[in-house]
DNA sequence: GAGCACTGC
């Protein structure tokens, strides 16, 4: 049976003309859809002579990779050696499946649209091949149509690291070249690219950093300070529907860059984008933007980029998924989920693994226990069940089980958080059980600092369809929604973009570094207007950054702010690191910050809390959690170094989270290198003078401070909230005069987490307090 | 006296 394209609800997909209108370009008129979508039936017909597939001046062609090699490949020696031959053979093999991809079928229209327009919006369903084929299409064929005088340089952004690396690897394989030559990737900690790289996959964060660190202040109304990304002819924003913080900021910045480059290219007489052949600097060329997204309502992007053409839609390769809803609301969604899994398993019709979506780790473990017990009652004749929890905090080895082959006669049941919605694709799934819940961090802004809490929320319609689609990636599947159809109808259509949900300080600093005024910036969705989180987020970010002395105006970044951007840290953490240079304690601060940004230091299982607390005492620093955690980190590093004891065993005995410490080691290495580049010795230590560490922490966390009251409780210094020290802190039940903390969470009480003590008098040395004192004195 | 989804530089 040929796969049937799934028809997940695509809000607004049946739209009329005008913005938001879409045109389906999935198949050329001469190819029939069932043929195009069937991987089992390769077409032997040669590519059409449509100007795209014939041989081109530089040797690129749409024929198999080994038959035609590019100049780039030849120059790099690919194909000359054994590895090269192997790669070309593999590329030939991949070629067969490539040309069956829906994207390949519609490539002519896509290329024409991109070449004819400044900005193109492509909606591609899962499996259509857009992310792998688009760069090759542009790189190979743009030249043949006389649009560029050289193969265009392309950047493609991804929200996450893994896809960026995987796509670069895949596209390299398809082109028969080694990763890092013609095609490469740049993500944090890893850069595979070289001068020969024409297609660069990267995370959105890398491109944001590049823009922020290589721009100057806006000097004129034309905003010439902005880095114009002249090394790229085309920038592709992939997975734009996810609307990450960076997606939104990048879209805004790219639109401005495009406008400036258009003006400059017009001035020096460069039309579509030829490179200057004359001596001196390369002439400014126009920038093409391609926005790629899942099949959702494109009207926001169409409107934002003011594209004159409607979005293109490329059909995907999804199988049909039936969806069922409950007739009555579930009383206990964990129990209902377990029952549903057993029913799927025992009804006996159909193969395939089951994927259950749960909001969090605790719910997952409860459900897993229930299922393990139930599976013991299965008759011997029945297939077995393998219950596999999956969430981010899980040890890597347990996570890896998802990808190992299941035992004979065993059905796997993966119980996951929304990590399985986008980040991890589980093979073999044909049943999805969706509780309809997720957890999300919510920030509440106060002028006295942010409060946060994790909230149980219903998913959006779009997310529910995304979960449903996870059942139809390999064969037709089924989705069981553990809520009623009416409840589904009540769900919001889309999740609010991240820009309306989180702390904007880091992004706003980067924006100001680009010479852009955050109050006048063109946002796809205004972060202020629709936010219900108290203070207007941009203003809150502006105040935070002013307090940290990172900025001195809406478009003015201070030298300190510029230096803060040299580090992959939030502004407050970057401020702490810079303070350590003057307080002679970069060694301590680097270790502390590496831990703070890497995750929980301690394994926190409720059944072992006393033992964890006892272990913590072994590393106790009376100053608080920051130095206590640093002591643990250093003990771990020493044990790894000295090799007399197993670090894993040591960590287990001391209830220490090795996942966090391993991550911290990478961050630490990177920070040490960056500090070295600032001309500071990262090993410089304050020795026994721990006050220096406290003063540094206070410079970035002065908003997160509280002082003890006569009744033993703590009250915020910048606000009036009464806060408690979290019971996991070494300072719990110790009465200290003043505390600073990493975060304030509301759970059963207002809890400060990761707490250290400090001396109140230090506050008056800080700029925000000095200014306040001055203002008071003058009136 | 505890209740933590997921990314990224």
TrEMBL record:
Residues 78-89 have a biased composition (Basic and acidic residues). Keywords: ATP-binding, Helicase, Hydrolase, Nucleotide-binding. GO terms for biological process: positive regulation of transcription by RNA polymerase I. It comes from the Eukaryota. Residues 51-65 have a biased composition (Polar residues). PANTHER family: ATP-DEPENDENT RNA HELICASE, ATP-DEPENDENT RNA HELICASE DHX33. One of its GO terms (molecular function) is ATP binding. Residues 340-515 form the Helicase C-terminal domain. It catalyses: ATP + H2O = ADP + phosphate + H(+). Residues 1-89 are annotated as: Disordered. InterPro entries: DEAD-box_helicase_OB_fold, DEAD/DEAH_box_helicase_dom, DEAH_win-hel_dom, Helicase-assoc_dom, Helicase_ATP-bd, Helicase_C-like, P-loop_NTPase. GO terms for cellular component: nucleolus. The lineage of its organism: Eukaryota, Fungi, Dikarya, Basidiomycota, Agaricomycotina. SUPFAM superfamilies: P-loop containing nucleoside triphosphate hydrolases. Residues 111-314 form the Helicase ATP-binding domain. SMART domains: DEXDc, HA2, HELICc. Residues 34-47 have a biased composition (Low complexity). This is RNA helicase. Its EC number is 3.6.4.13.
């Amino acid at each position: 049976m040929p796969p049937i394209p799934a028809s997940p609800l695509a809000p607004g997909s049946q739209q009329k003309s005008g913005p938001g209108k879409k045109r389906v370009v999935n198949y050329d008129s001469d190819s029939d859809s069932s043929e195009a979508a069937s991987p089992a039936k390769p077409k032997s017909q040669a590519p059409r002579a449509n100007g795209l597939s014939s041989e081109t001046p530089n040797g690129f062609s749409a024929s198999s990779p080994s038959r035609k090699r590019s100049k780039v490949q030849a120059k790099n020696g690919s194909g000359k050696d054994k590895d090269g031959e192997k790669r070309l053979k593999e590329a030939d093999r991949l070629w067969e499946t490539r040309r069956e991809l829906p994207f390949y079928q519609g490539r002519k229209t896509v290329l024409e649209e991109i070449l004819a327009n400044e900005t193109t919006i492509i909606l591609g369903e899962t499996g259509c091949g857009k992310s792998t084929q688009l760069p090759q299409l542009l790189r190979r064929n743009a030249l043949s149509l006389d649009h560029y005088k050289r193969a265009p340089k392309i950047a493609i952004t991804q929200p996450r690291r893994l896809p960026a690396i995987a796509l670069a690897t895949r596209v390299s394989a398809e082109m028969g070249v080694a990763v890092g030559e013609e095609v490469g990737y740049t993500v944090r900690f890893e850069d595979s690219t070289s001068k020969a790289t024409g297609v660069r996959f990267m995370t959105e964060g890398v491109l944001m950093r590049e823009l922020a660190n290589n721009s100057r202040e806006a000097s004129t109304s034309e905003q010439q300070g902005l880095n114009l990304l002249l090394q790229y002819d085309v920038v592709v924003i992939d997975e734009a529907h996810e609307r990450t913080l960076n997606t939104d900021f990048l879209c805004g910045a790219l639109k401005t860059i495009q406008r400036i480059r258009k003006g400059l290219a017009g001035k020096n007489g460069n039309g579509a984008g030829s490179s200057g052949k004359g001596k001196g600097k390369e002439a400014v060329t126009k920038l093409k933007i391609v926005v790629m997204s899942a099949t959702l309502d494109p009207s926001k992007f169409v409107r934002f980029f003011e594209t004159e053409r409607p979005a293109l839609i490329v059909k995907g390769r999804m199988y049909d998924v039936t969806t069922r809803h409950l007739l009555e609301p579930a009383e206990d969604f964990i129990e209902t989920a377990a029952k549903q899994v057993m029913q799927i398993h025992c009804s006996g019709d159909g193969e395939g693994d089951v994927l259950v979506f749960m909001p969090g780790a605790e719910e997952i473990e409860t459900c897993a226990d229930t299922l393990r017990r139930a599976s013991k009652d299965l008759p011997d004749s029945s297939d077995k069940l393998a219950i596999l929890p999956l969430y981010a905090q899980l040890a890597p080895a347990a996570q890896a089980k998802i990808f190992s082959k299941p035992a004979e006669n065993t059905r796997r049941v993966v119980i996951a958080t929304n990590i399985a919605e986008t980040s991890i694709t589980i093979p073999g799934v044909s049943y999805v059980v969706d509780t309809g819940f997720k957890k999300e961090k919510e920030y509440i802004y106060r002028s006295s600092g942010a409060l946060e809490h994790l909230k149980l929320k219903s998913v959006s319609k779009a997310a529910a369809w995304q979960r449903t689609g996870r059942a139809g990636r390999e064969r037709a599947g089924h989705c069981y929604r553990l809520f009623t159809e009416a409840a589904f109808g009540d769900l919001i259509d889309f999740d609010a973009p991240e820009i309306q949900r989180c702390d904007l300080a880091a992004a706003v600093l980067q924006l100001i570094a680009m010479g852009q005024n955050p109050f006048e910036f063109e946002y796809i969705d205004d972060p202020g207007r629709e936010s219900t989180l108290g203070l207007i987020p941009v203003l809150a970010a502006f105040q935070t950054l002013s307090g940290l002395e990172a900025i001195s105006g809406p478009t003015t970044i201070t030298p300190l702010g510029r230096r803060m951007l040299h580090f992959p840290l939030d502004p407050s953490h970057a401020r702490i690191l810079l303070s350590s240079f003057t307080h002679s304690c970069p060694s301590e601060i680097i270790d502390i910050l590496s831990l703070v940004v890497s995750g929980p230091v301690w394994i926190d299982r409720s059944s072992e809390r006393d033992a964890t607390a006892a272990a913590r005492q072994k590393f106790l620093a009376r100053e608080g959690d920051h130095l206590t955690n640093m002591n643990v980190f250093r003990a771990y590093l020493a044990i790894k170094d000295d090799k007399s004891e197993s670090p894993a065993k040591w960590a287990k005995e001391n209830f220490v989270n090795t996942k966090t410490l391993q991550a911290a080691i990478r961050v630490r290495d990177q920070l040490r290198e960056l500090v070295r580049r600032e001309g500071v010795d990262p090993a410089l230590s304050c020795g026994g003078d721990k006050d220096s560490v406290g003063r540094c922490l206070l410079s970035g966390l002065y908003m997160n401070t509280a002082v003890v009251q006569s009744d033993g409780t703590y009250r915020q210094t910048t606000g009036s909230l009464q806060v408690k020290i979290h019971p996991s802190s070494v300072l719990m039940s110790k009465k200290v005069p003043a505390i600073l903390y990493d975060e304030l969470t509301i759970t059963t009480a207002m809890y400060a987490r990761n707490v250290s003590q400090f001396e109140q008098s230090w506050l008056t040395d800080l700029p925000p307090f000095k200014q306040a004192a001055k203002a008071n004195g003058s009136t």
